[in-house]
What does this fold into?
Amino acid sequence: MAPPAFDYSNGRAVVQHGSIFYSPNCSRPVDIPQEPVHSSDPFRWHRLDVSMFKQPVWWDQNWAWRSFIPLAPSFLFAPFEPLCAMPRIEEVRFSFSAPSGEMVTQIRFRLPEDDIRRWLWAEDLIVKAAYELRLRYSIAGNTPPKPSSFHFDRAHKSHPIAKRMACLARDWFAVWMGYLSFIIAKSENRVAKTAPADPSSAAPDWYSYLLKQPEFDELWLDGLSQSAVCTYDWKTPRAGIIFQWSVNDRDREPIEWYSKHNIPLWFIWSNREEQAIRNNTDLNFLRPPDNLIQEALNILFAAPGLPLAGLIIQKYFALGNDPITNKTIEFLRLQYAPTFVFEYTAKRFINQEALLQETEATADARLEVFKVLRDNTIKATAHAASSYPYHGLSATAAPHAAPSVQSQDVPATVRETGRNYNEFFAAREKRQQEMIKLESAVDRQRRESREQKPGVVNATIYEWEKTQSSGGLELYKRVKVNKKANETVFHSYRSHQRLFNAFSNEWDLCEDFQFGIVDNTSYSDDGYDSGNDDVYPVNAVSQPTKAPPSAAPIDTDMGQSWCEYSRAPLETMSLVYGYVPHAGDNDIPPTLSWERMLNFMGFVRNLEELDVGEPERSAMMNFFAAVLNAVNTYKSDKVVAKNFENLSLLFQFEHVRRPTEDLFVFSSPKSDSCRWVLGVHSATAALYVCRYILENPMAHTIVTVAHRLLDRGIPFRTLLPLTCSPRQVTIAEPYVPRSYRLSDHTFTKADFDVAMLACRSVLSSPQGRAALLQGGIVGRIAREYISKDGVLSGPSIEVTAHRVGYLVPSGDNNVKFCDDQLTANEVAIICGTYSLHTPYKGQVAVWTWFPPPEAWVHNRTGCHWLDWTERCEDIFQRILTGIHDGTGRPRSTTQWLTHLRGQNISRILIKHND
It folds into this structure.
């Protein structure tokens, strides 16, 4: 295995326990534990919590799998689907006979029995999969406790305890995800000890082996393959591993193996490693840059009023390495320091001689105080960083941002002090005030009607789920409710816990909301239940005192979201194709009927309702004829040039920047509610934006234009100018198969549902908002699950903090225009992609439930309109109808091109418009 090419700009160095630790692939603040003297069970403690296992671990053959524990896994995959929504706690009356013969009745609290069964089913399968694969490949490692060890299947003495134990158990599945992830990663290079591998299968051996077991089917394995268990990339942050690479251990996996699986690596940097590199220059890739080490030392030496560097040097030469007399070795052990560390510390010592004399008498006491403060700060920062807020999460209190994150680039959702749901609603209100200025009379009437009488059944509802990070940071996540459960979920909240937004016809629900008169009735008990008090006699009978509100089912049924498209021919011809009303006639007679012309512009139904009065109708038909019948001729060019000339007289094109060949950037008309600027990737879209702004130049802003593009499904970017290094470029990740089927597999609605769970997981990720920005078929799928507010809020934390996404030069030194970006893998998951193989090795095809973007916009399809048209929606709905009635199947790209086949005039229109 070739040595990894580490980019140390993504690394970090820390000083803890007197040693220097560095990572070539992790910049997250961490808390390095003391190196254990011997192997011990990390799960021996009484009160376990998944937050205890999110920091890097020292390598140990029995427990190295803990380095694979994901920090923020998604449960939106088939094996973990029962965990997606936290069930409601129900009140239960237990009746049983006491030893005296008397019937005793007690009230307890628990999860509903159906949810208990589903959680136990999820646990049994993941435990079984781990057991089977570990046995097949002879993989060492001790097993963690099961989630059921937290007693989610029992009744508890109070509502808060029942809820807490359920939350602990649910989070504990992440530990098992890490355990199984490690086993699958190890299986890649292992020879099976039981049945031989199937050479004809395109699927990995572990997948094919489990498929042969009666407990597992393709749907479950698809979900597992697409989940965090089998996703070894930078978007799946994990706990990490620590070891001293200069000390050989033949049982330890190589550095390259951990790097390949994107496991954060942490190494000791001492004079031993320095000497090893001197003796073998092939190890140079493991030498940390001096500036990385210097940064860690500067943080260590930054104690105000305490000459720490001077004290370390002074006491090292005076007292040696005795930990009893020399308290500074807890901060830095010069005995093992590399050359640069020793020299740099000595330089700092020279400049601190005067301060050393002033603080000599109180040095030891101040060192003890500083150590406590420093240890507490390291733990708090590391714990906060291990559960860093994702896009779509709002903090209920001010978080401790990681030192490596530039605060000016962190979204307001994370950065502002006291950021909570009130701040979110205030930002939304500010954007909507800009959009209200452009409301039509009909839209205003609808909004005012909704304000007077808010609806529930047809509204979009979001629940705000509250989570507690390991560092004490409380966060809210806005989760869309399945419309089938709207009324059930709505009525499970009190009136002060609901907020209606008439502009977008949305409800936001949260137990912590305080709008209007507040009912302060609440439970006061809280704690951790060991289960000792909840053992009932075998003759106990339980009965719910009332039916609990059911958790909202996961929404995999699509086609529920209303999608806007134009039903105005004059508007479409003007904004999309550049027709200028009343611009004068031309001498090119029409060759198509009015109805055929409407068809070619994407209109499908009730065409008789789309009539336009004369003389405008004739002028529009003449313009259309000029475009179609005389492309690239003098007459056609004359018509187009005349319309463009009219536009250029009204719009100041010098305000449109073009930093690259395929990017047009609009920074005006400015908005007070956003920091980003708007970008589009084609001249056609740029002209659309110009024409739309000119419809109401005094009222439009960047936000109102972006809102219009979202409504019409037109691709665009929300570009944030950020300082970037030359190494930071647009992310590119090629498609890698995750779901496998034999070519004769009969697809069902169940296959589709599992694929859409994976789709929803991608869309709920920080960068998932890029799907709506992409428009087309990907944007239409995303509309089913993503709120427009997530797009208009601007780039996610992946961009603002990590510079991962779409990055292009802005023309201003090291500043780049940045936005979220989907990878080829993520687009494939959104479209529901499978790798189909025959019994013969090497014959593989790729099929998808929805047309991939390259098929959708292909000139042969006739779907390559700038905006999402009525015909686009018609095709989308027909695909869904076929899936639901059992006639729809995934298709190859070639089959999709045939299915979406367009007409010659459509292709001519596309050619002209480009």
